[in-house]
Amino acid sequence: MSESVQLLCAAALAVAGILSWPSPPRRWSVTTRPPPASGGVLGTDARRGTAGGTGGRHLVPEALELIALALGGGASVVAAVAEVASTLPAPLGAELGQVASGLAGGDDPVQVWERTGDHWAPARRALGLAEAAGVAPTEALLAAAADLRRDAVADVEVATARLAVRLVLPLGLAYLPAFVLTTVVPLVLALVRDLS
Fold first, then answer.
1. Taking every annotated instance into account, which residue ranges of this chain make up the domain Type II secretion system protein GspF (predicted)?
2. pTM, entire model
3. DSSP string across 83-97
């Protein structure tokens, strides 16, 4: 096999490897927004807890910790939620602001929290359990924040494992055949030529 044929085969395999490389996940920009979730103003990502990718899941644990700190300092639930709402970016801050307004207006706490979306479910559960048990909700909020962080780390580990699996195919298609064609095949041909 001539050198030019070997180079041509290696180049073809490299192109095949590049073409089969997994494309990066689509990122939403200002001009391309995800479709809104049914029954809500927020996008699909926000309903899952990522707040449309602009502050999302990683800010919910911090918000829960801030509410717990405010409650530990002697603030009421309404005052703690309102104060934390003023520090969060949209849409999370607006959602907590609606919770604070609803609680201050005497609305049912369960219904008020349910209007905010699934990403605030840990806060709803922690405050509800603390109220039912007649204890301060500080520890429950801190535990919920720790659980959310643990889930976020697990999500990153799963994404990393998926990336490793996706990298195997392009590497196998490009580098292994190129190695065989440029190293093993010429060696075998040279041995066959010397033996014959």
1. 64-182
2. 0.56
3. HHHTTSPTTHHHHHH
Q: Report which DSSP code applies to 184.
A: I
Report the residue count for the chain: 196
> Token pair for residue 186?
């010429």
Question: In which residue are the tokens 């801030």 written?
Answer: 66
Place of tokens 């309404």: 78
Cβ contacts of 187-193, under 8 Å, gap ≥ 24: 189/1
pLDDT tens column, 122-163: 888 998 888 888 888 889 999 999 998 898 889 889 998 888
Which bin fits 74, alpha (ψ -120 to 50), beta or left (φ > 0)?
left
DSSP 49: T
Tokens 């919920």 belong to residue = 144
CA angle 61, 65, 70 (to 5 degrees): 150
